[in-house]
Amino acid sequence: MSSAVWVTLCALCGVCGGALGRALARRGPSSGEPPGEATFLALRVAGLAAGSLRAGLTRGAARRSVRHLRALLGAAGLAVATDDRVLARDGTGVPADEAVLAEVRAAMATGRPRAAPARGDARHGVVVPLTVEDRVVGALAAYDAEAGAALLRTAAEVGRWMSGQLELAELDASRRRTLEAEARALRAQISPHFVYNSLTTIASFVRTEPERARELLLDFADFIRYALRRAADFTSLADELGCVDRYLLLEQARFGDRLRFTVQVAPEVLKVDVPFLCLQPLVENAIKHGMPGEVRVVIRDAGPEAHIWVEDDGVGMDPEHLRAALAEEGSGIGLSNVDLRMRHLYGQDYGLMVETAPGEGTRIRLRIPKNRPRAVPARA
Predict the structure, then answer these.
(1) Helix-strand-coil percent breakdown of the chain, rounded to 5?
(2) Which of 158, 159, 207, 360 is the most exposed place for a label (fewest CB within 10 A)?
(3) Residue in 233, 230, 262, 229 with CA at minimum distance from that of residue 245
(4) 292 prior amide bond cis, ω within 30
(5) Which is nearest to 229 in space by CA: 272, 174, 190, 279?
(6) Which tens digit of pLDDT belongs to each residue from 326-355?
(7) What's the mean per-residue pLDDT of the chain?
(8) Are 327 and 271 in contact (CB under 8 A)?
(9) pLDDT digits over 6-16, tens only?
């Protein structure tokens, strides 16, 4: 987690704590209630609301969180809305949708909290804009018998906290879009040279070894189908190894005895979810820098993680050149792409570990936590 995100989270916790403390202070401590019990209950309710809000300002998220939000405020009624519809409501005294939307639009237009006068059976209310990256995206409307300064201050604080949760939801969405873009870049990076060379190799066997040409063509089709499928960010290690196996067969058909490879896998890790196309680029790099020679893939069970090594005994790489390649964030190429995706998914400690030197071969280590990170699309 970056220091900026950590500071943001700490600030949000402070805002949340302040709002919740004021909200619960209105009802006062219960007789015999242990010290700190009110704060614990408030934070628990905030956590329940936060889990839903991290999905963004949607109808489903609003409906799941509105009851908890009303409990935080201690208001008789509550509504969450955008400029065109009321997403959810809870409690009593909330006016009809048209009246709520009129007040919401007025608050969103100014970007400031505003009072909502009582109308008919509806109670007095306050409306607080919700913002994401300085954009007003909706509003929180709280209704009670009195809409005094206390309700206004508390609603404003809860609105700020909600805006913080929605900011985090936007960060999650941006992170997912980044990962998807990187996966698309990696698919596009399935080298045209590899496609051309594979088809040329297959064509060379058509007359002399037609059965082998047929098998290689099926391997090529399976590899392309896997690499270009509409996939999520994750797949099983077994599927990823199947892709690598087909890739190696095609490259061995091309290079013949100049390429040797071995794959050693602990069976218990085959079901572990891994980032899509995280292994093939490492093998491709090993072949590129290890020819002629041997490529070794070793995968072991390491308790909470699966450890993957891809090694070659080729010409190696200059460490400075390697660092420059891994620093090319926008390149979407090979090692850099895999390194960036691993850091985005699991944190900075999970980038590639590379041991190499000119004439000494290359050894790349990849650590895969067995527990998939949160806020990442599920496997298709």
Answers:
(1) 55, 20, 25
(2) 207
(3) 262
(4) yes
(5) 190
(6) 665 444 457 888 888 888 889 889 999 998
(7) 80
(8) no
(9) 334 444 444 44
* Token pair for 10: 């700490």
Q: Which residues pair with 142 in a beta bridge?
A: 78, 126
* pLDDT tens figures, 136-159: 999 999 998 877 788 888 888 888
Residue 3 structure tokens: 């220091």
Tokens of 111: 């970007």
Element (DSSP H or E) covering residue 300: strand 293-302
Q: Which of 306, 248, 317, 308 is nearest to 279 (CA)?
A: 308
Residue 231 near residue 380 (C-beta atoms within 8 A): yes
Residues 307 and 299: their CA atoms lie apart, in Å, by 6
Residue with tokens 């604080």: 157
Residue with tokens 């809860």: 158
Pairing of strands 86-91, 77-81: antiparallel
What are 127's strand-pairing partners? 114, 141
Q: Side chain identity at 115, as an amino acid letter?
A: A
User: Cβ atoms within 10 A of the Cβ of 6, count?
Assistant: 10
Helix/strand/coil for 140: strand
Q: What angle do CA 254, 256, 261 make, to 5 degrees?
A: 100
DSSP H or E segment with residue 126: strand 124-132
Q: Is 116 helix (H, G, I), strand (E, B) or coil?
A: strand
- The pLDDT score that the predictor gives to residue 168 is 84
- Distance of CA 8 to CAs 162, 211, 346, Å? 13, 61, 19
pTM: 0.54
Q: In a 10 Å sphere around its CB, with 0-12 CB exposed, 13-18 middle and 19+ buried, how is residue 168 labelled?
A: buried
